[in-house]
Amino acid sequence: MTTSPHHLKGAAVIGVFLCFAFAYLMSFGMRSVTAVIAPELSRDFDLSNAQLGFLGSAYFLAFAAMQLPLGIWLDRFGSRRVHATLLMFSAAGCWLFAHAGTYTELWIGRALIGAGVAGGLMSALKAYRFWYPAERQQSLAAWTLMSGSLGALLVTVPARWAIELLSWRWVFWGGGSLFMVAAIVIFAGLPRDEEQHSARGAAGSSVAELTAGYRQVFRDPFFWRFAMMSLLAHSVSSALTTLWTGPWLIQVNGFAADRAAQILLLINLSALIGFLGVGAVQPWIRARGWSTQVICACSTAAAIGVQLLLALVESPAIWPVWLVYAMTATFFSMVQPYVGMAFPASLSGRALTGYNLLVFSGTFGWQWMYGVLIDVYRSLGQTDAGAYRRTMLTGVAVQVIALIVFLVWRPKPPAERMAGTS
């Protein structure tokens, strides 16, 4: 096992991880909660499907917009200060959402939440690389993603109970308080050596020099081969599971809100198990020579097949297929680290945040467009259920095109191209 003078020892090994895991749990919980409270928001504010989709996607729009400056901030100031400061904006966003009396206030609150948690996973991965041995990185990443799935679990049935006992507003009052606790714990409890190391590494580098690395990343065809899949295919799973699955279960399958929340709990439990499984089978996959490209293509094809079943089979008994969809989507988590590792170490952070920008831009676009398309199909005479089904089929068509392009277009990774020219 590799060692470094910066590697944590004793209780700090667990304590630092738990700080990041709790913040990511909160991040994912607030990302997913709109799927549970959608009926109340639509009723209280008389929202159309397009408005509901745009509201849910505000989180992802703000999250995506933060990614490019986030990479620079992390490299200049370190994970502790950046993550703790941003989490305070999430707390403010929750409190504004809880107090909101207009759609505009809801949207701004939701956007503040997304901006504040934009560094959740990236801050953790940067800190892990500094404080933990290299051989633990994939496990730590998988466990952090698992904590996010746990957060999604906690905003299903438990959130329904809180809504029925109090109201959806109290969910956000409590969420804001927990975000503030997470910010204080991270700011006060994490070691300072990682940010000191970041400050020394960025010393003498101008913002223009740091942003120049993004130009290199975004000009690379290898990056765009996977970024295209993120924008047009992978981000669909986030758009569906964090918003539209709940309304689908109610409008298409005819379930009551309580039953829909129970199914959402099972869906998020499936995702949690999926992330654990991905972490466990990665060595087995590598030993058999299966490339990340193959995993990406197979998982996309499987996700397309599942969506076709959901769109074409009208029986409510089809709902367990959502569990399969949630597990299938977890394999997409292998792609982002692969893209980051394909670039030189000096660009890996910006490759990761650049890719993250496109993941969440795609999720923003899909969440909003699902609502727009549902309203369009309804205006053309479709029932609610029919509009939902045709919207999903439209999304499937786009994903099929993306998969075909991915299979045909095969640019080499940057490292291989550099080796070929040396």
The Cα radius of gyration reads 21 Å
Helix content: over 70%
Say how many strands there are.
Answer: 0
| Arithmetic mean of pLDDT | 84
Shape: globular
Strand content: under 5%
Distance between the termini: 32 Å
Spans of at least 5 consecutive residues with low confidence: none
Largest sheet: none
Structural class: mainly alpha
- Determine the number of helices (DSSP H or I, runs of at least 4 residues): 19
| N-to-C order of helices and strands | HHHHHHHHHHHHHHHHHHH
Multimeric status of the protein: single chain
Describe, in plain words, how this protein is organized in 3D.
The protein is an all-alpha fold and 422 residues long. Helix content is 83%, strand content 0%. The chain has 19 helices and no strands. The protein has helices spanning 11-32, 34-45, 49-77, 79-99, 103-116, 120-131, 137-154, 157-165, 168-189, 193-202, 207-218, 221-251, 257-287, 292-312, 321-329, 335-342, 345-379, 384-408, 414-421. Helix 8 crosses helix 9. The protein is globular and about 60 Å long.
